[in-house]
Amino acid sequence: MTLRLKLFVLIAGAIFFATTGVTAMALWRELIRGQELLVREGVAIASTAAAGASHWIGPSGPEPGSTQALPAILDRLLKSAPLDRAWVVDRSGALLACASRTGETCPSGFYPNEFESADWALQALKRLVNPEGLIARAPVLHGGEVVGAVCVDFSHEEVIGSARELAIGASLVGFIWITLGLMMAALFIRQVTKPVVDLIEAAGHLAEERGVQLDEPEDRELRDLVHAFNQMSRRLEERRDENQRLIASLEERVEQKTRELLRADRLATLGGIAAGFAHEIGNSLNVIRGYASMAERELPADHANREDVVAIRRETGRAAAMLERFLVFARARDSRAHAQAIEPILREAVEVVGPAAAQAGVERTVRIAGPLPPVVADAGLLRQAFLNLCVNAVHAMRDQGGGTLTARASVEGEQVVVEVSDTGPGLEPEVARRIFEPFFTTKAEGTGLGLPIVRQAVEAHGGTVTLESQPGRGAPFRIRLPAARPGAGDQPPGEGTA
Question: Which of 172, 231, 311, 338 is packed most tightly, with the most Cβ within 10 A?
Fold first, then answer.
């Protein structure tokens, strides 16, 4: 027997047993429906008695003669229907009359102005087990006003009828078929799954044993599966030695990377120490520059040492500025990033270089291509990056007598692109390749930290900065920043510091 046939038999059996369950459910629903119809019949029967009782119950209570009339009405009601009890209550739920075949007392507290809640689904099943009757009632009306109610209680046998025998028979048949189905399912599942279980166990042993091979079963599909497993086991055996060689190579590379990380950690420590030294030296230089400024003010204009003092002040100021740029590059600061528009930051940076641009004969232009999405950014860091690019552009065009500084902002996909370009002399390819290296500069008075600070600030925001410069065609710098996602927090997508 093939695996397909076994599965077919299993599925057919499941469908058959499911059909048996559906049949039992239909019987149950029929039982519930029968009880609902019986409740409606009880309301109709109680309504006939309520019409007669309305002559003996008024708004103020029972009328004279009601003690004899109401029991007679209830007796006739018991004779006309298979009821165990029938009783009448007034508008407050007090019992006025009761008739019972079984001798049971009639309850009070059935308020005529309350509706009986619907039976829950298992209530019908509960009546199959417990000898519980079915109560129905109808209001007693006098002059259009509810003055009481007639309640009837059907006998337990009338409620259940033959439902109990039917339910017991259906349950017995269902139990037998379910038991047979489970036995057949267990048998077929064992035949189907045993090769699969053996295959799973063998797969678990592949990591410990070498060359695991299984006997191929008779079922064609399982035989193909086991055959494929045996081939895989052989291939794994062939590659085991190769993996061992790769592991040895990886261990060597990990050891090498560990040494590099340790060296990088030492360099980071030295960098922190260097930043501390630079800070202290900068303080000393500021003191020297202060005293030199005082000496310059006190010395006469024709004093022989005045030029020396001026040179001391100028060079200490230059050294202090270089150390300050180094500290900005070397030290990280806490980010104050949040989702905001980038256009005001860009316009402010272009506006700040206005005096220097006017002195150098440089025209400034800001172009915004349509509405821009916000970016998660630290305004101070981005402003410093844009300002450094604008200052470099003004300096590049100052030597040639002027030009045009253009700042553009646009959207490309899910990125905001900011481009700062000029009409200066541009850069040679070998210079453009090194332009972002720390301390690399082509200016006589430059520190070589302006563009590295730009790249550091942009990368801290999860963006990139590129230069596409050609000699004689200016130096366009293009910054790409990710647009803020809806609900973005206060941290940028990068490291959060610059």
Answer: 338
